[in-house]
Amino acid sequence: MDVLISRERIQARVAELGVEIAAALPTNEVVLVGPLKGCVIFCADLARALHDAGVAVEMDFLELSSYGAGTESSGTIECRKTLTDDVRGRHVLLVDDIIDTGRTLAWAREHILELEPASLRIAAFLDKPSRRTVEVPVDHVGFEVPDLFVLGYGADLAQRYRELPYIGVKTD
Ligand code: IMP
Ligand code: MG
User: Fold this and answer.
1) CB distance 127 to ligand 1 below 6 Å
2) Atom of ligand 1 at shortest distance to CA of 103?
């Protein structure tokens, strides 16, 4: 595994994102909403970074599926689980590990907007802008990455490598 973004750079950037997002939020309360499972590591770290920046955080999750076991999106989004809590009138931050084609976050955004939140912002830990096929307004990005299949910090290959504390690229 080649390390593309080190653990130290990730930690520093997530702390910055906490401050950046806290400043952009209309109030000091937010509901983080993430599509399982890729969002969980970033969501957990960002929740604590937001806490450090003075924001009260709730979390909720969607379960969507766009990838099979391979490295290419199937193109179809399947919703396996919607939100548990009522986000009507709440300030929501949609959070994911990577925005690639944009299909996942575009679908999640439309879905959440139908639930009538007071506001909706989007944070993606990694952004692969060269791969975008669907326009999505992403408000906060951790790092831009080139068109490589990356692993770690939530990003998986057939459910493996999510726990890596760095962003890596498989060499073999
Ligand atoms: P999109 O719908 O094409 O934007 O894809 C978003 C989802 O695909 C992310 O939530 C990731 O789970 C997954 N994904 C996209 N690129 C990668 C990658 O390089 N490594 C691992 N997962 C990826
Ligand atoms: Mg994912």
Assistant:
1) no
2) 2
pLDDT digits (tens, 9 = 90+) for 101-144: 999 999 999 999 999 999 999 999 999 999 999 999 999 999 99
Length of the chain as a residue count: 172
Which ligand has the minimum distance to the alpha carbon of residue 158? 1
End-to-end CA distance of the chain: 8
Q: Judge contact between 47 and 60, C-beta under 8 A.
A: no
Q: Can you tell me the distance from the alpha carbon of 72 to that of 62, in angstroms, rounded to the nearest whole number?
A: 21
Q: What is the CATH number of domain 7-148?
A: 3.40.50.2020
3-state helix, strand, coil in the chain (%, to 5): 25, 40, 35
Residue 78 token pair? 């399947």
Please answer whether residues 31 and 93 qualify as being in contact, where contact means their C-beta atoms are separated by less than 8 angstroms.
yes
pLDDT of amino acid 73: 59
Residue 70 has pLDDT above 80, yes or no: no
Contacts of 127 (CB under 8 A, 6+ apart): 98, 99, 138, 141, 142, 143, 144, 145
The residue extents of the domains of the chain are: 7-148
Q: Is 67 in the pocket of ligand 1 (CB under 6 A)?
A: yes
Ligand 1 pocket residue status of 93, Cβ below 6 Å = no
